[in-house]
Amino acid sequence: MSEFKLMKGNEAMAEAAIQAGCDAYFGYPITPQSEVLEYLAREMPKHNRIVMQAESEVASINMVYGAAGAGFRTMTSSSSPGISLMQEGISYIAGAELPCLIVNVNRAGPGLGTIQPGQGDYFQSTKGGGHGDYKMIVLAPASVQEMADFVFLGFDLADKYRNPVLMLSDGAIGQMMEKVQFKPYTRPEIDKSSWATTGKPKTRNRNYITSLHILPEKMEVHNLKLEEKFKKIRENEVRFEEINTADADYLFVAYGLSARICQKAMDIARQKGIRIGLLRPITLYPYPYQRLRELTAQVKMMLSVELNSGQMVEDVRLGVEGKVPVEFYGRMGGMMPTPEEIVHHLETLIQYHHAN
Amino acid sequence: MNSINDCRKLEELIVAGFGGQGVLSLGMTLAYAGMVENKEISWMPSYGPEMRGGTANCIVILSDNKISSPILSLFDSAIVLNQPSMDKFAPRVKPGGLLLYESGNIFKPSTRTDIDIIGIPATTEALKMKNAKTMNMIMLGAYLQLKPVVQNDSILEALAKVLPEKYHHLLPINRQALELGEALAKEMKTQLV
Lengths: 356, 193
Description:
The structure holds two protein chains of two kinds. Chain A is α/β, with parallel strands linked by helices. Chain A is built from 13 helices and 14 strands. Chain A has two domains: 4-200 and 213-236, Rossmann fold; 240-355, Rossmann fold. In chain A, the strands form three sheets. In chain A, strands 3-2-4-5-7-6-12 form a seven-stranded mixed sheet, sandwiched between helices. In chain A, strand 10, helix 10 (256-271) and strand 11 form a beta-alpha-beta unit. Chain A is globular. In chain B, helix 3 (83-89) links the parallel strand 4 and strand 5 (93-102). The longest helix of chain B has 22 residues, at 171-192. At the A-B interface, helix 8, strand 8, helix 10 and helix 13 of A face helix 2 and strand 2 of B.
């Protein structure tokens, strides 16, 4: 096992990209993830890999499209406004069924918003930010270690399903330093010869990458094939973490930074005798609906805590199907709730539901 | 407050001051030292315009157990290096906690009586050493005298990691600054008693 390093989340993600065998990174600087391009511009050339500062985010995502089409392991990263610019390209990549990793270090919006952390890109990430029927696997790291781990996982899942994978982080996880350990990893050998545009040998027909299927009959066949893939992803790739749920009367549902703050809130609430647990979705798509539904047999109320105006709470409600009350608490604009603030809100809600 | 024994298990600290005073590197040195001792650590900086002047702060957590929230509103200790940080963070020190401040930059310390408030003339002392930038290490030395969250050796090891190699000729003066801070805090402690 390699030794621990002290790194920012953004740096850990960049180092993981190198260790995961990323052939090419395309990006454009934006706070709070500029360290990624900075780190890779310094380190990638030492490994004879490609790193390029594109002229814009629109260009970066289309360079990713090209590199992925040519069979390379490739990625980009940005923060919210930059990710918005990439949506067209992401839709094309999903349509063309190409594997790649996209990282969004979420800041508060809408618009240019502010550079402080946010989770306002949940809908964009999980419900299709670009046009058309497509889904990305969305991984939500809650620590610097996971910022690294999910790069390896993300690349592998992208290859497995020939689909873009999004890592949805936030400004705090990107900027904070924690211990991180890089596990030994060997990039799997994947035969891409049936689809990648690597030059046509005489022995096979031309590989052709497109998201254009102009005949509706053909387009629908393609749509159905994609849907089949997304179904497989929903069946096989749901990931979540549970803390203190065994005896829980109440449940926090939170991801990323919010989940970390909720853990502290949980400790404080439990000292006050409130038996509360935490369910932390690790994949935001596919979402752990099933597990939430199971937990309705046990908990009296769920509280979704987010750095937005209430986005993931809609998925919690979908999972719960009205069986128990689902409440929401959030802060916006780059403001972050304190653990004490969350506990105060929880106590008020418990009182309210007890009285009604 | 968390006693000297407790602070070795869990310490939640905020360091705050002007950008350029070495706020972030003070916190980072401490975080590195925690890692040297195999502790769980988290270093959460304020980021953004702070880098270009204005106020900067970082939250450092050192723990024997897994760390939950990297963002906190109450602290076991605060090291404040300017008046706005004193005004902002003095109310957020837990009762019984430690508020350590740089007395050359802060003229109105908190009047709270339920916490230990200790001023260190670190700027004056740093100027005597002919290197104003060692002010943060004097403060760190003073803090470690009052809250020995990590061993001295670990801090020295950390310093060598935090300082880029081209600045390693400054390691001795930083070490001196740490020792000076410790001595100053020791003196202040005896005055308190």
